[in-house]
Amino acid sequence: MTFRPWTYEDVYAVAALEKQCFSDPWTFRMLADSFFSENTRTLAAEEGGELAGYAILSVLFEDAELADIAVSPKFRRRGLADEMLARLEGEALAAGAERVLLEVRVSNAPAMRLYLKRGYVGCGVRPRYYADGEDALIMQKRLAGANS
Ligand SMILES: CC(C)(COP(=O)(O)OP(=O)(O)OC[C@H]1O[C@@H](n2cnc3c(N)ncnc32)[C@H](O)[C@@H]1OP(=O)(O)O)[C@@H](O)C(=O)NCCC(=O)NCCS
User: How far apart are CA 3 and CA 121, in angstroms?
Assistant: First the structure.
């Protein structure tokens, strides 16, 4: 498995995998906008030329936000999301962030377990945050080594 930042060509494969992984996927345009944003860090996990997973993190001063993370069904439960998150947390810290925030659907047990395993804790709820009316749980993790 290799890990690297996206190239523009990756946005096509990411958009296709995004559709497989989410009921309310980001569009190609949203993903492309993230790719070009200077606050954004992207990560692609690749095996044999196939996109196995991807993640997007944005950093704004002391706060980083995990915007998107997904792993292709056939590559799940191999520690890929855990590894991508660890790498992006390292990049966030190097960029000066002190914590990472994220939102997760309250019904998304696999993702919530992943975040709990990595030391994230719930810190708020956004009622009816998603288009289908589901609430989002806000989770955060203070980065070890951050100044405060
Ligand atoms: C959530 C997701 C990214 C996890 O990816 P993954 O590479 O399979 O996760 P990992 O193998 O790194 O798992 C790390 C930990 O997360 C938890 N976890 C992951 N998948 C799980 C599942 N299906 N059920 C229960 N716990 C799960 C476990 O604690 C796991 O550690 P363990 O294997 O030692 O028990 C993947 O299921 C996915 O792409 N889901 C659809 C998209 C999505 O919901 N993204 C998150 C949006 S907030």
Answer: 26
Distance CA 95, CA 63 (A): 10
Show the tokens assigned to 34: 């993230």
Domain 2-142, CATH homologous superfamily name and number: Gcn5-related N-acetyltransferase (GNAT) (3.40.630.30)
**70, 43, 37: which is closest to 56 by C-alpha?**
43
- What does the alpha-carbon distance between residue 11 and residue 32 come to, in Å, rounded to a whole number? 6
Look at ligand 1, atom 45, and give the residue with the nearest C-alpha.
70
Mind listing the pLDDT tens digit for each residue in 77-122? 999 999 999 999 999 999 999 999 999 999 999 999 999 999 999 9
CB distance 140 to 96 below 8 Å: no
DSSP reduced 3-state for 139: strand
Q: Is 56 in the pocket of ligand 1 (CB under 6 A)?
A: no
Tokens of 72: 């292709």
**Catalytic annotation present for 103:** yes
Report how far Cα 94 is from the mean position of its chain's Cα atoms: 17
CA of 18 to the centre of ligand 1 (A): 15
